[in-house]
Amino acid sequence: MPLSNQGTSATTPLVSVIVPARNEEVCLERCLSSLADQHGVAYEVIVVDDGSTDRTTEIADSFARIRECPVIVQNPDLVGIIATQARHPLPEGWTGKANALWSGVQQARGKWLLFTDADTVHKAGSLLAAVMEANEHEVALLSYSPAQEVNGFLQRALMPVVFSDLAASFRARDICDPSSPIAAANGQYLLISREVYEAVGGIETFSQSLLEDVALARAVKASGRRLRFRFGGDAVTTRMYRSWESMREGWTKNLALLFPNAQALAWRRLLEFGVMSLGPVAAVVAFFMGAHWVALAAVAIAVPT
């Protein structure tokens, strides 16, 4: 259960931040520290321990003992509450993340729900700015694509390609356009009105979907309500993967669901990467062999348009 704010002058939280966490000891402390540093808005943070076997619960509990988070001095009535909540037993047919999110919502008291992943880091003031942005644009759901922290050659080479394809297939202007049927959201940062969340049936409606964020966005837009989606590097960052194995597993699952011909797309991008990598080498060899036209052709092919 969320910690009580008894003895404080806190108002009912405007935002309930729900963080599902399964074996996130590497990144959870950084995430919660950034959330605890928000200001200007009444909020609570509910960490849902999704059956972790590492130090995730211990880290969350260490924050749970901090009953009052730092807030702006000008308004002492605003208070953040860090809480932990073990997920409910997994119902048959449900995905683990959907169950974790649903478990968090059962404890939430806010007018807005923010679903965010344990590997995110939130910039100071971003929570207040997000609520103001949602109100300014009169949207029921606001989602950011976080700035990606990438490390190593493979991540630096592949992650931009993947996100480029995603941006081309799910264009932000189409998602934000009420007349377009295109709808999407990024579960790493998804702010939704509690009233609208309940009106479209909540996470339980999409309990078997591996892309519950996209399914929720589609339901909201189908109901005639507005979405807003954009790159949110000014608000939140994330480091999605820490190894080649985790990146391969994650994108294999997600891209297969997001793209109808994911395998063909992957082979096409691999071929393009090979041409761009080997083209300059072929150009240099051809030049020193006197085949200048071949060298120019190799360069022309290797340079992306």
List the SSEs and their pairings.
Elements: E1 15-21, H1 28-36, E2 43-49, H2 56-64, E3 80-86, H3 96-107, E4 112-116, E5 120-122, H4 126-136, E6 141-145, E7 147-148, H5 152-169, H6 172-176, E8 189-193, H7 194-199, H8 212-222, E9 227-231, E10 236-238, H9 244-258, H10 262-288, H11 292-302
Parallel strand pairs: 1-2, 1-4, 2-3, 6-9, 7-10
Antiparallel strand pairs: 4-8, 5-10, 6-8
Helix pairs in contact: 1-2, 10-11
Which percent bin holds the helix content?
A: 40-55%
In round numbers, the mean pLDDT is 76
CATH topology of the largest domain: Spore Coat Polysaccharide Biosynthesis Protein SpsA, Chain A
Q: How big is the Rg?
A: 22 Å
Q: Could you say how many structural domains there are in total?
A: 2
Structural class: alpha/beta
Strand % is 15-25%
Oligomeric nature of the chains: single chain
In the CATH classification, which architecture of the largest domain applies? Answer: Alpha-Beta Complex
Strand arrangement within the widest β-sheet reads 3-2-1-4-8-6-9
CATH superfamily of the largest domain: Spore Coat Polysaccharide Biosynthesis Protein SpsA, Chain A
Q: Count every helix, treating DSSP H or I runs of 4 or more residues as helices.
A: 11
Secondary-structure element series: EHEHEHEEHEEHHEHHEEHHH
What's the CATH first level of the largest domain?
Answer: Alpha Beta
Number of extended strands: 10
